[in-house]
From TrEMBL:
<dbReference type="InterPro" id="IPR005706">
    <property type="entry name" value="Ribosomal_uS2_bac/mit/plastid"/>
</dbReference>
<dbReference type="GO" id="GO:0005763">
    <property type="term" value="C:mitochondrial small ribosomal subunit"/>
</dbReference>
<dbReference type="Pfam" id="PF00318">
    <property type="entry name" value="Ribosomal_S2"/>
</dbReference>
<dbReference type="InterPro" id="IPR001865">
    <property type="entry name" value="Ribosomal_uS2"/>
</dbReference>
<dbReference type="InterPro" id="IPR023591">
    <property type="entry name" value="Ribosomal_uS2_flav_dom_sf"/>
</dbReference>
<dbReference type="InterPro" id="IPR018130">
    <property type="entry name" value="Ribosomal_uS2_CS"/>
</dbReference>
<keyword id="KW-0687">Ribonucleoprotein</keyword>
<dbReference type="GO" id="GO:0006412">
    <property type="term" value="P:translation"/>
</dbReference>
<protein>
    <submittedName>
        <fullName>Ribosomal protein S2</fullName>
    </submittedName>
</protein>
<dbReference type="GO" id="GO:0003735">
    <property type="term" value="F:structural constituent of ribosome"/>
</dbReference>
<comment type="similarity">
    <text>Belongs to the universal ribosomal protein uS2 family.</text>
</comment>
<keyword id="KW-0689">Ribosomal protein</keyword>
Length: 304
């Protein structure tokens, strides 16, 4: 009986307390009219401007400020745009150390992979990587441009080879500028040393000094063997040793991009540069294509 009466007394107190609290809080809400949610929602709205022409005046002020401050600032010119090297390759006269440096032409391979024959092309070592001298790259690239220009000026056939992934557009663009041939697939062994069997069915034609076809020599061309290039430009000599060896057996001059791990004696005119960078290969291929284009235009100009 004692425990039962105590529990009943405590239960009445527990039920009575929240009832008084809820009543007091409800009374406070009714006495404070400033917390009305309806009035608060209307007061938070953005009031429309009284003057309807304020927007027009602000726009006119903005245009005036824009005209006044239009000439303030600086314009960086010339600026490096790597995407234009493929569509608009630079000419041999535009070769500079800054352009070669921006194209990553100076980066070689690890010092453990170097070929001692490239010691004269190496500027130094940076964090275990050989750095190619850009002076050597610029001078050898200018010499290669002179060779390409001379061959194109005399009507020679130039073959551009680049079989690595991503070099397709580079060799095609260079061949279009030079009016020559391109190869971006695997080189078929024997295409030069055994060209009569491999390239015997390829169509050949006789052209005049203006590169226009001359009819009537079909029978003579059938008895003649396949044409051989007068100059081969190889952008990745490491994967095309067979091609370079066949060119050496047939006394065909070659131009190649030689990295620090390649053998410079494989080609006739080496260009020490980074053969792993597509930006560098794009620059070299475009410059050589422009040199061939200049030689071809010079020949056509003399013929006309």
């Amino acid at each position: 009986m004692i425990l039962r009466s105590t529990a009943l007394r405590q239960g009445r107190r527990a039920v009575a307390r929240p009832t008084r609290c809820l009543h007091s809080s409800a009374t406070c809400l009714q006495q404070n009219p400033s917390l009305d949610p309806t009035s608060y929602s209307f007061s938070s709205r953005i009031q429309p401007p009284v003057d309807g022409n304020q927007v027009a005046r602000d726009y006119q002020a903005f245009k005036h400020h824009q005209e006044v401050t239009n000439r303030i600032g600086s314009v960086v010119s010339p600026k490096y745009q790597p995407h234009t090297q493929l569509t608009q390759p630079p000419s041999p006269d535009d070769i500079s150390l800054e352009l070669l440096l921006a194209s990553q032409s100076h980066l070689g391979h690890s010092t453990s992979l170097w070929n001692p024959a490239n010691a004269r092309y190496i500027f130094g070592v940076r964090q275990g990587v050989h750095i190619i001298s850009l002076d050597q790259t610029a001078s050898h690239l200018r010499r290669a441009c002179a060779v390409v220009r001379g061959v194109a000026q005399r009507g020679g056939l130039i073959l551009f080879v680049g079989t690595r992934e991503g070099q397709e557009r580079i060799v095609v663009k260079a061949a279009q500028l030079a009016g020559g041939c391109h190869l971006f697939d695997r080189w078929i062994p024997g295409s030069i040393t055994n060209g009569a069997q491999i390239l015997g069915r390829c169509r050949t034609k006789v052209v005049d000094e203006n590169d226009k076809e001359i009819k009537g020599f079909e029978e003579q061309l059938e008895a003649k063997g396949a044409l051989k290039p007068d100059l081969v430009v190889c952008l990745n000599p490491l994967e095309n040793y067979v091609l370079l060896h066949e060119c050496g057996l047939n006394n065909i001059p070659t131009i190649g991009v030689i990295d620090t791990d390649a053998n410079p004696t494989w080609v006739t005119y080496p260009i020490p540069a980074n053969d792993d960078s597509l930006r560098c290969i794009n620059l070299i291929g475009g410059v050589l294509g422009r040199a061939a284009e200049a030689g071809m235009k010079s020949r056509l100009g003399q013929a006309s």
